[in-house]
Amino acid sequence: MSKIAWIGLGHMGVPMSHNMVKAGHTVRGYDISEAAREAARSNGVEVAESVADAVRDADAVFTMLQSAKVVEQVVSGVDGAFANMPKGTVVVDCSTIGIDTARTLANEAKKLGVGFVDAPVSGGVHGAEDGSLTLMLGGDIDHVAAIEPLIKSVGSYIVHVGPSGDGQAMKVVNNALMAVSMAAACEVSVLAQRLKLDPQVYFDIVTRSSGDSWVFRNWFPLPGVVANSPSSHGYEPGFMIDLIHKDLRLATATAAEFGVRLDTATAAAQLFADASAAGDGEKDCTGLVLSLGADAEKTTASV
Ligand code: NAD
Question: Measured from the CA of 120, which atom of ligand 1 is nearest?
């Protein structure tokens, strides 16, 4: 069994690191938030004092952090993982950070004699809890082979997409589709509410009709219909509005670089930006219905 360092113990990091513990690995975790460290401790993770302390004798280092900026700081900063982990160790970054940052960090790793694999995930908090995430890997074949036995503890569909950055490229396109679907599901659900359609009947018909999607089925944005959807739990994340907006920014910036129109993603990004400006940035992305004018009286039910 291996010694794993896990940096970033948030909505995804806690259940993913817990699955590593359940698989028999020793996990030393670190997060800047005391509440996050406590949650990890109660899930069998040994809590470290700092990033350096967590990675010191690790066989592999996993990161699950909000953004490219945070990952750069944690991985390649002065007190970061690269500077403190043993030579030959691989950093597996499961965050969504975009293609360029992943390639820059992989190049830096090569110069330092360590490894970096981009390994963004899909499947949400429930996928993280039951170990059924999809992982999209970008990196050198040797590094991927070294970490593959470990990542089987957190995901059930694991694909080596190609060289460094290709995992992030796949994640950019997946999340552009997901986020546009989410924005559409929220807008149309507010309309359904205004038309006084029964939410359960609306859900049952759409999930058997051409309007169906993964997002609609799993993250239905009106409360009281889908037990596992954050909409049925007061719009607590889940996947925060600020993070889905970050992913849309990554998608639209990448599309602009390649001269591709992504007008639906641009419109969706504006809706999530408006929700964030209205103070809902830390709500789950299904909570977009609130700033779109969903009837508050009908958005409090839980299943
Ligand atoms: P989160 O905000 O819940 O967790 C991130 C954690 O990182 C927080 O606990 C935060 O305190 C910690 N952190 C911030 N700066 C740090 C630092 N310098 N050192 C150590 N810890 C630090 O976010 P999340 O929902 O777990 O998402 C993490 C990543 O996974 C994001 O890139 C997101 O886009 C991606 N993702 C999320 C989901 C989801 O459903 N939540 C699904 C797929 C991918």
Answer: 44
Residue 153's nearest CA partner among 32, 296, 16 is 16
Q: What is the pTM of this model?
A: 0.96
Residue, of 68 and 295, whose pLDDT is higher: 68
Please enumerate, as own/partner, the contacts of 75-80 that have beta carbons within 8 Å and a separation of 24 or more.
75/105, 75/116, 76/105, 76/108, 79/50, 79/51, 79/52, 80/51, 80/52
298 noted as active-site residue: no
Residue from 69, 72, 130, 243 to probe ligand 1 pocket by mutation (most atoms less than 8 Å from CB): 243
* Span 212-241, pLDDT tens digits: 999 999 999 999 999 999 999 999 999 999
For ligand 1, mutation pick of 14, 17, 31 (most atoms within 8 Å of CB) = 31
Model confidence pLDDT, tens digit, residues 156-214: 999 999 999 999 999 999 999 999 999 999 999 999 999 999 999 999 999 999 999 99
Q: Please indicate whether residue 102, judged by its CB atom, sits closer than 6 Å to ligand 1.
A: no
